[in-house]
């Protein structure tokens, strides 16, 4: 297929720059411990300096894959699908979620909210970043707010976003992995003083699970 035709399909969300796909245990947030099939989409311009998947940022190095193929692979492994990135909302998620829903799969997304919400989701995990603020009404659509804590100011940032979500949204503070020994006690003290929050850990890293 010609490059121009491929790019048109990517822009329409019918092909996506697939970085990787794998079946594992969800390690973070509300669904931790759940078996899930992860679809990691390339492309992100949010630019978090502590990002542990910087190789996902450049969409051009990840080959466009037809959403039909992505969905067929996902359906072989699990009824819970997690779409992550990169920043998946860089792309139109409607074609992907339409096909996943036809397979009667549970569809989750992990997003910074930096681009307008597209697609139909059973669970939205909003993880806002300071570099690029969420847009649209995603705060009110979020089922889970997960704020990564790198320093004390991130607690202020977390409260800023907690004020925007619905009362049913579950609130999490998660230590950034590289500074976890430093910030975990800070988070624990904060959650004990503000029990509307919960602690989220990257349990898959402790368990040495991909």
Distance between the termini: 33 Å
In sequence order, what are the helices and strands, one letter per element?
HEEEHEHEEHEHEHEH
Q: Which bin fits the share of residues in helices?
A: 25-40%
Please state roughly what percent of the residues sit in beta strands, choosing from under 5%, 5-15%, 15-25%, 25-35%, 35-45% or over 45%: 15-25%
**Total domain count:** 1
Instruction: Compute the number of helices.
Output: 7
Structural class: alpha/beta
Using only CA atoms, what is the Rg? 17 Å
Describe the structure.
By secondary structure, this protein is of the alpha/beta class. The chain has a single domain (3-206), classed as Alpha-Beta Barrel (TIM Barrel). It has helices at 3-11, 67-75, 94-102, 138-141, 153-162, 180-193, 203-206, and strands at residues 15-25, 35-41, 64-66, 80-85, 106-111, 123-126, 144-149, 170-175, 197-199. A nine-stranded mixed sheet has the order 3-1-2-4-5-6-7-8-9. α4 links the parallel β6 and β7. α2 packs parallel to α3. The longest helix is centred in the C-terminal third of the chain and has 14 residues, at 180-193. The radius of gyration is 17 Å and the shape is globular. The mean pLDDT is 94. GO terms for molecular function: 4 iron, 4 sulfur cluster binding; carbon-nitrogen lyase activity; magnesium ion binding; S-adenosyl-L-methionine binding. This is 7-carboxy-7-deazaguanine synthase. Its EC number is 4.3.99.3. [4Fe-4S] cluster binds at residues 44, 48, 51.
């Amino acid at each position: 297929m010609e490059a121009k035709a491929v790019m048109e399909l990517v822009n329409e969300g019918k092909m996506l720059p697939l970085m990787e796909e794998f079946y594992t245990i969800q390690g973070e947030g509300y669904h931790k411990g759940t078996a899930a099939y992860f679809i990691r989409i390339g492309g992100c311009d949010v630019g978090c300096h502590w990002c542990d998947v910087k190789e996902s940022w450049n969409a051009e190095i990840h080959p466009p894959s037809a959403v039909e193929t992505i969905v067929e692979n996902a359906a072989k492994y699990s009824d819970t699908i997690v779409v992550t990135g990169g920043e998946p909302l860089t792309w139109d998620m409607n074609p992907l979620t339409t096909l996943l829903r036809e397979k009667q799969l549970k569809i989750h997304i992990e997003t910074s909210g930096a681009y307008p919400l597209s697609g139909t989701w059973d669970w939205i995990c909003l993880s806002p970043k300071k570099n690029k603020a969420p847009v649209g009404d995603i705060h009110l659509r979020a089922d889970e707010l997960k704020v990564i804590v790198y320093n004390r100011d991130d607690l202020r940032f977390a409260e800023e976003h907690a004020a925007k979500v619905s009362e049913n949204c579950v609130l999490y503070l998660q230590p950034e992995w590289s500074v976890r020994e430093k910030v975990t006690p800070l988070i624990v003290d904060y959650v004990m003083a503000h029990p509307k929050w919960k602690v989220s850990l990257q349990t898959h890293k402790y368990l040495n699970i991909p």
